[in-house]
Amino acid sequence: MSHIAVIGGSGFASLPGMEFLEEVCPETPYGQPSAPIQRGRLAGGDFLFLSRHGLQHRIPPHAVNYRANIWALKSLGAERVVGLAAVGGIHAAYGPRLLAAPDHLIDYTHGRDQTFHEGGEAGVVHIDFTRPYCEALRADLLRRARAAGIAMVDGGTHGVTQGPRLETAAEIRRMERDGCDLVGMTGMPEAALARELGLCYACLAFVVNWAAGKAEGEIAFSELEANMAACVDPIQRILTALVSVEA
Ligand code: HPA
User: Fold this and answer.
1) Could you state, in order of their start, the residue ranges of all structural domains in the chain?
2) CA-closest residue to ligand 1 atom 10
3) Substitution candidate for ligand 1 out of 64, 171, 173, 185 with most atoms within 8 A of CB
4) Is CATH 3.40.366.10 the right assignment for the domain spanning 4-115+124-244?
5) Rounded to whole angstroms, how far apart are CA atoms 244 and 46?
6) Which of 43, 72, 94, 158 could form a disulfide with 102 if both were Cys (CB 3.0 to 4.6 A apart)?
7) Which atom of ligand 1 is nearest to the CA of 210?
8) In angstroms, rounded to a whole number, what is the distance separating the alpha carbons of residues 220 and 72?
9) Cα 161-181-156 angle, rounded to 5 deg
10) Does 109 sit in the ligand 1 pocket, CB within 6 Å?
11) Which residue minimizes the CA distance to atom 9 of ligand 1?
12) Average pLDDT, whole number, for the chain?
């Protein structure tokens, strides 16, 4: 059984350096996950890998089947889940290419299937979400990054928007007033669903652009892609260190 899972987002349809072991396509009560789940090995440690947007990057943030994804990982034995998230930087301290392990989030998404607890015979179930991320896994990510000499910010508030469009400058100003440091589109309901199933979930965010209005002019997608590419190596090194201890 693999106890750690990685959900790869934009820029991570697979994990570089991963030795491929097998692919599994578990059925869930919520339909199919975004892609077959890969069992892989990095530095002797086994883990599960799931591409959030599908193998050909065809599923936009609002159409991801978050429930099937989280259910499938749990059914395959995952206990700890790292959600990779390409994000825009809002706060001046979160510029492009920075890595962060946010400690809070604000959910601006709508219309997504956001719970496993639909009521009816099963009754009404609430979960505590005071701290949306698993502190133990966040601390582990930060420790691995430090040991590898890779800068990673401890904390920050991750605002999650609906997408797929980027935000207006006014929306980003509002998010800033709300206290958001980072903005992405896939952090929710992923984190809440993981909590509902008792998984230890943390977000490893990597900044690929200044959020709308935070730099001169419009957001340049060429720069965004270059920043994304630059984050692959440090993230791969952190995850390798994290996974290797699972062996
Ligand atoms: N906004 C929302 N999601 C994002 C951004 C952004 O600026 N950059 C990467 N994902």
Assistant:
1) 4-115+124-244
2) 87
3) 185
4) no
5) 8
6) 158
7) 7
8) 35
9) 110
10) no
11) 87
12) 95
Residue nearest to atom 5 of ligand 1 (CA): 88
Inter-residue contact 23 to 37 (CB < 8 Å): yes
pLDDT per position as a tens digit, 66-87: 999 999 999 999 999 999 999 9
Question: Of all atoms in ligand 1, which is nearest to the CA of residue 209?
Answer: 8
Q: What is the pLDDT of residues 80-123, one digit of tens each?
A: 999 999 999 999 999 999 999 999 999 999 999 999 999 998 88
185 pocket-lining for ligand 1 (C-beta < 6 Å): yes
Instruction: Give the ligand 1 atom nearest the CA of 161.
Output: 2
Contacting residues for 108 by C-beta, under 8 A, at least 6 apart? 159, 160, 161, 162, 175
The angle at the Cα of 96, spanning 239 to 16, to the nearest 5 degrees, equals: 30
Q: Pick the residue whose CA is nearest to atom 3 on ligand 1.
A: 184
Report pTM: 0.96
Report the pLDDT value the prediction gives residue 247, as an integer from 0 to 100. 43
14 pLDDT band, cuts 50/70/90, is confident
